[in-house]
Amino acid sequence: MSSQIEEDSKDGSDILQALDEELVTKNLSNLGRTADGTKFSYLNLSIPGLNLSDIACLSKFKELQTLNLSNNNLNDLSVLSELPFLLYLNVSNNKIEKLFDFLPSYNLKEADFSFNRITEIGNLSNFHYLQSLQLNNNQIKRIEGLEYCHRLKNLNLAHNLIKKIEGLENLPLLGLDLRSNQIKKIEGLEPLKYLRFLNLSGNMIKFLHGIPEKHEFLEQIDFENNRIASLSEIEHLTALNLLRDLNLISNPVREAEDYYSAVIFKLPKLVFLDNRKIDSNDKVNAKNLFHPSAEYIASRDHMTNFIFNIIQDHKVRESTLPNIDSPYPILLLCGPEGSGTSHMATRLAKQFPEYFDYVYWLLNFLFLSK
After folding, report:
1. I want to staple 82 with a disulfide (CB 3.0 to 4.6 A). Which of 59, 233, 331, 353 is the partner?
2. Which Gene3D superfamilies does the record match to this protein (predicted)?
């Protein structure tokens, strides 16, 4: 079995473990051809959660292509310089303070350094084939050193200390995650012409004018838990023709009158709003509320008049009748078609012949006179 190394800790109970060949052999998998195709070897190694602090013996396993060392106690990765064919690396949840403190594998594609103690990205000019980089939950203050990562498609910098969006030039990013940082202003996104997924939740953003109109591929944006307060800010998103998913949960703008319908009306191609799927009724209601058709207006007015006609009191009250001192020379009845004016006029003429003799129409108004 592997050797055990005692190390003092706050509670005095942590036991750090040094990786040995026997432990490596037990956790190898995926038998396949080596990178040069000359022989067969195990290509994957996964040893998470064993409190490892020393992985020096990995220098003997040069054919490894996938390596998972997450949830250990590592702070030195220099031995990974001996793995020239490494493609996928996961060293999340360790105690790493420096990003890539080893000579990189030329073909390294994916690296996960999340939940460590990294304070700066540094120069990644040697990582030409890197496609995915996970750096969330560290202590990074600035985006830098990525200029030569010409194949980087996914970048996760969530839960760091970043205040400004910068250093993203020449990157073919499809996904950018900047959740829970200290960003107040949307900027620096213009070079990201192929961006499809953007997460800026948990920041301090008030305005959306930094979203470039030329982002023709952007389809999902998350602004949850920011400070967006005005519905007018949605106008900055109307040029995003492929935008299908927008999240504005925990923003003051959601308190605006008719918020849900207003956003749907401004962005008619949305499929999801605030993690809720938009159905056809939502879109019809938004259309009728903010830009109703003439037919809808006529239908609504007819319905209103019909309801008023039902609840209208058709009884002629004594207080409305003329008296000897002030007789009515003429009585005018008006109302929409079907409101009962003809019936009322006939009743009045029959019931009060001493006041009304003639009933006639003139320009849609019904007159009664003596």
Report:
1. 59
2. Ribonuclease Inhibitor
Two tokens, residue 340: 């009962």
The residue segments making up the domain with residue 338 are 316-369
The predicted model scores a pTM of 0.76
**Alpha carbon 312 to chain centroid, angstroms:** 50
pLDDT of residue 364: 47
Residue in this structure with the two tokens 């504005």, named with its chain if needed? 248
Do the domain assignments include residue 240? Answer: no
How far is Cα 43 from Cα 48, in angstroms, rounded to an integer? 16
Q: Is residue 326 part of a domain?
A: yes
What is the count of structural domains for the chain? Answer: 1
**Percent of the chain predicted with pLDDT > 70:** 78
Which contacts (CB < 8 Å, 24+ apart) does range 253-257 have? Answer: 253/228, 253/229, 256/230, 256/231
CA–CA distance, 286 with 330 (Å, rounded to integer): 47
In a domain, residue 352? The reply is yes
